[in-house]
Design a protein that fits this description.
The complex is a heterodimer. Chain A is an all-beta fold. Chain A has no helices and 9 strands. Helices cover 0% and strands 44% of the residues of chain A. In chain A, strands 1-9-8-3-4 form a 5-stranded mixed β-sheet, with no helix packed on it. A 4-stranded antiparallel β-sheet of chain A has the order 2-7-6-5, with no helix packed on it. Chain A starts with 8 loop residues before the first strand and ends with a strand. Chain B is an all-beta fold. Chain B is built from no helices and 11 strands. In chain B, strands 2, 4, 5, 6, 9, 10 and 11 form a 7-stranded mixed β-sheet that branches. Chain B is globular. The termini of chain B are far apart. The chains are: A mainly beta, B mainly beta.
Chain lengths: 110, 113
Amino acid sequence: DAKTTQPPSMDCAEGRAANLPCNHSTISGNEYVYWYRQIHSQGPQYIIHGLKNNETNEMASLIITEDRKSSTLILPHATLRDTAVYYCIVRTNTGNQFYFGTGTSLTVIP
Amino acid sequence: KAGVTQTPRYLIKTRGQQVTLSCSPISGHRSVSWYQQTPGQGLQFLFEYFSETQRNKGNFPGRFSGRQFSNSRSEMNVSTLELGDSALYLCASSSTGGFYEQYFGPGTRLTVT
């Protein structure tokens, strides 16, 4: 199963873009990249997912490199409510099983 | 649409006892997955049920089991509780169980004393 590597923590100024990197160098051709976040004491929340192309929704943008070995989640205008642990996940090709890893703890600073 | 609900929210048990946790998925969702979250191990996948069948299983001992009913509600059971089973147990549902996003419930906080 493909695994991911993320920096343990990051800070971002409120109102600025938060760019969260993720390495997934062993990703297979049919595996998707998912991003979730977990605000303290709550269940994880789905943000976005993609296969090859860049994706955007109302919450964030996902940029996947051409070789698919890494990706970046972009929160365009970070707010204090975006402070959370962000997980980059590669969906296994053996079923609906998600390996969450340790994630990046993002702190948005006023 | 109502979200994923889990009951109970908090539970305290004694070593050696067993416990049953319940999860009601979002209406129309047929896949339910269970996760264990601890400070030391993070979020770990337990198992997934789809249409009453266990489709995937993580690396947990046989003391951890689950089932899914015809209405897609799911239960997980932990027998012979150990101190290390103290954790937040999260349930997630998804519509196809395949490529779509999972929606998580608030979790059940289990404390084993």
